[in-house]
Every structure is written in C-alpha cells, then in structure tokens.
Write a structure and sequence with these properties.
Length: 111
C-alpha cells in the first residue's frame, strides 16, 4: 500500500485548498477512504470518510459545510476540497486506508 498526499500549503483565513492522495498497491475503488489530520501538539482527528461503491460521505462537525471529500476511482485518487479555512484547520493532513497512512501534507492557515 502506498498513499501520497499533496496540495498543502500556506493559506490565509477564508481561503481554499484542494488536497490530493494518490493511492496504489490495492484496489482503490473497493475500499472506504478517510482523511484525518493532526494539529500541532494534538492527536489524530478524523475529518471525513467516503465509502466505496456509492461514494456516500461523512464529515466531522468541525468541517461540515466547508470541506468536501471525493474520489476518482479511474485515477486511484482521493481529494479533499477545503473552503473557508480557519486557523483551527492548521494541521498535517493524511489520507488513510485501513491502518495505513501516507506521509501527510501540511496545511497552515494564517494571515
């Protein structure tokens, strides 16, 4: 299993970013995929889940209405569209497949 996140960076409050996660080593389309994040000095926090098949989604209360998870099974890629970013969203973001995570991508929200 290999998961490679990208798309992070420095953004001002209220801004947007799109994170990507390129997956390989497993049948991507058959599995639930998850985004989690870890803020400085804090533990891992679940952000969002997208199911296989019908691609139904679920979100943490803290990101509902601002973040959108999606997947492109043809490209074996998971996405996280993040809008109206807040300094509280500053964290390393990871995509997760079962027990595996990538190296993460840093998102910093600051003016």
């Amino acid at each position: 299993v290999q998961l490679v996140e990208s798309g992070g960076g420095l953004v001002q409050p209220g801004g947007s970013l799109v994170l990507s996660c390129a997956a390989s080593g497993f049948t991507f389309s058959s599995y639930v995929m998850i985004w989690v994040r870890q803020a400085p000095g804090k533990g891992l926090e679940w952000v969002s889940t997208i199911n296989a098949g019908d691609s139904t989604t679920d979100y943490a209360d803290s990101v509902t209405g601002r973040f959108t998870i999606s997947r492109d099974n043809a490209k074996n890629t998971l996405y996280l569209q993040m809008n109206i970013l807040d300094p509280e969203d500053t964290a390393v973001y990871y995509c997760q497949h079962r027990g595996s995570r990538g190296q993460g991508t840093q998102v910093t929200v600051s003016s």
